UniProtKB/TrEMBL annotation:
This is Fe2OG dioxygenase domain-containing protein. PROSITE patterns: FE2OG_OXY. It comes from Aquilegia coerulea. The lineage of its organism: Eukaryota, Viridiplantae, Streptophyta, Embryophyta, Tracheophyta. Keywords: Iron, Metal-binding, Oxidoreductase. The keyword Iron applies.
């Protein structure tokens, strides 16, 4: 790219709605503006490992041995990986595909339509934008997003047509899966099956849909879709339009997460780490980009009620051998802390460590 063209790209694509998609579709783009250049001093070691798979149907098995086996598998997956794949979850593959298609249709809309969803506050019920938090990001990430509150109050962008109906059904189904998984995880911690569900008031849980668009990037080795971070909440359930792009940090090495069609990727989030007093830990992960195809992912974050103060479970704490490792914090305050600051590892969780 000529110097003048590069300079134009630097000035024309400021942190505004849809700027990465617009930038990626620019006909003269051969390199990324310097504002998107992401540098990480850590040594890049990427390995191919298969993360655990959980057969969701066995959680409701009438055979005690089968249920005991899947609870043990959940315990090992949460303790050793913090990530696992879920199969036989009961959500129709056609519904998953339609949810991804609806998100693509949203991102394909005109700037004028998407601006209707550009909520000012980081906790606006409907908010779309670019990077992570463009008002504080020192480096912009190669990502556009849509964030929508879907429970206990359901919201939806006004367009595209059909988004509301599809997202309502999809989020209802994922909420059911998440609550069943959390029951199994509760048992795996040695707690009563409904302990976490009741303690976190999951009947009125805070559930948010986060759609991510990662367009092709001419210099993927220099850009980052999302930097290394952990998630807020208890569990995140994620689907994606194609494999490749999601990586988790396991024992200091980056592992590519590959999921078969009709499979949900699940990861432990910060508030399950707090509640379990560190027995299960949220895992740092990131999104990398490529120069060939657009990747869309839809993550559904499941957390406690916004007003719930999350502390380590009293049954998992004693002052002698297992003292509490985290201060209590209201879930809403935690979200505001994370969303108002730069996204970096487990920096928000570090603020509540004792």
């Amino acid at each position: 790219m000529a110097a003048t063209s590069q300079a134009h790209a630097e000035t024309a694509f400021r942190p505004k709605l849809g700027c990465v998609k617009d930038l990626a579709e620019s006909s003269d783009l051969t390199s990324i503006p310097s504002k998107y250049a992401y540098y990480d001093n850590d040594i890049e070691v990427i390995v191919e490992r298969q993360i655990p798979t959980i057969d969701f149907s066995l959680l409701n098995s009438t055979f005690p041995d089968q249920r005991a086996k899947v609870i043990q598998e959940l315990r090992e997956a949460c303790k050793e990986w913090g990530f696992f794949l879920v199969i036989n979850h009961g959500i129709p593959e056609s519904l998953m595909e339609r949810m991804l298609d609806m998100c693509k249709d949203f991102f394909d809309q005109t700037e004028e339509e998407k601006l209707k969803c550009s909520g000012e506050h980081v906790l606006a019920p409907i908010r779309s934008g670019t990077s992570f938090n463009a008002s504080v990001d020192k480096v912009f990430f190669w990502r556009d997003f849509l964030k929508v509150w879907v429970h206990p109050q359901f919201h939806s962008p006004p367009t595209p047509a059909g988004f509301s109906e599809i997202s309502l059904e999809y989020c209802k189904r994922t909420r059911q899966v998440a609550r069943e998984l959390i029951k199994g995880i509760s048992e795996s911690l040695g707690l009563e099956e409904h302990y976490i569900d009741k303690a976190m008031d999951l009947e009125s849980c805070f559930q948010i849909l986060v759609a991510n668009l990662y367009p092709p990037c001419p210099q993927p080795e220099l850009a980052m879709g999302l930097p290394p971070h952990s998630d807020y909440g208890l569990l995140t359930l994620l689907i994606q339009s194609q494999n490749g792009g999601l990586q988790l940090n396991h024992n200091g090495k980056w592992v590519n997460v590959h999921a078969s069609p009709n499979t949900i990727i699940v990861n432990i989030a910060d508030h399950l780490e707090i509640l379990s007093n560190g027995k299960y830990k949220s895992v740092v992960h990131r999104a990398v980009v490529n120069n060939k195809a657009t990747r869309i992912s839809v993550g559904i974050a499941h957390g406690p009620n916004l007003e719930k103060v999350v502390t380590p479970a009293t049954e998992l704490v004693d002052n002698k051998n297992n003292p509490p490792l985290y201060h209590g914090i209201k879930y809403k305050e935690y979200l505001e802390l994370q969303q108002n600051n730069q996204l970096s590892g487990k920096s928000t969780l570090d603020r509540v460590r004792i």
